[in-house]
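Reopening this ticket.

The earlier resolution said the output was attached, but the attachment link was broken on my side. Pasting everything inline this time so it's all in one place.
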Amino acid sequence: MATQAFGEEQRALSVGKAFSRGFDAIRAYPLQTLGPIFVLTVVPGLLFQTLGVNALMAAAARGTAPPPVGLIIIGGILLSLLWGTALGAVIQATLAHAEGRKPELGEMLRAAVARCVPLVIVYLLYTLAIMFGFLLFIVPGIFIATMWSMAMVAVVAERPGVFGAFGRSARLTKGARWKILGVFVAMFVIYIIVLSFAGLTGAASTMSLASLQAAPQASVGIGQIIIALINALLTTWMAAMFTSLFIELREWKEGPDTSRLSDIFA
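Inline output:
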């Protein structure tokens, strides 16, 4: 196809441009990008930690009746759907910014709610596939991780369906998987360093002789709040980066969006 020839012959894939796009989206619209993750994952996550996991551990330590396991399972499912909704909203906001539009709350929520279930399903299948691949001597897991890395963004950006998203990702990443692997390694290192720092900071803020001697409490400590906030920042950053990389891959393969060019020169 002519557009494919344009993408592959006229311009090189720029990972740096993808990173720049992601940072620009967060900097330009912090409320639209950071807001969904904080509101839909941090607050419910801390509540789930308090009422579910921490309460279960505290009950086990004291020998009292634990909270109903069924409610904890339902809470986990709802938390997963909220995570999918938040991720979809960040992806939609980054896509809108890349198209030169201001992300509107209504647009973000409509896209996120409509795609939250497929997003969670794609994420689960993607994770299981990577785990299975790593069981086959690591290399297949790395191949799967890079080949299907754009599937979740594709679910929101193009709505090809669950299995269509994996096929779309495989086509877009073909010929660029070594670069994508480099991006994976860089983001993984940054993620681990920042999260480790957050963990140490949170532990230092809550650790004392009294807390070490006390029985487990069904409450959230300062350390857990710090880690949750830092993890939310990292999740937003990674979602924006992968969305920007998806856009860069699509333009590399197929050329610029002709509808945008029409709007520019209209």
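Reporter confirms the inline version is readable. The chain is about 85% helix and 0% strand. The chain has a mean pLDDT of 81.
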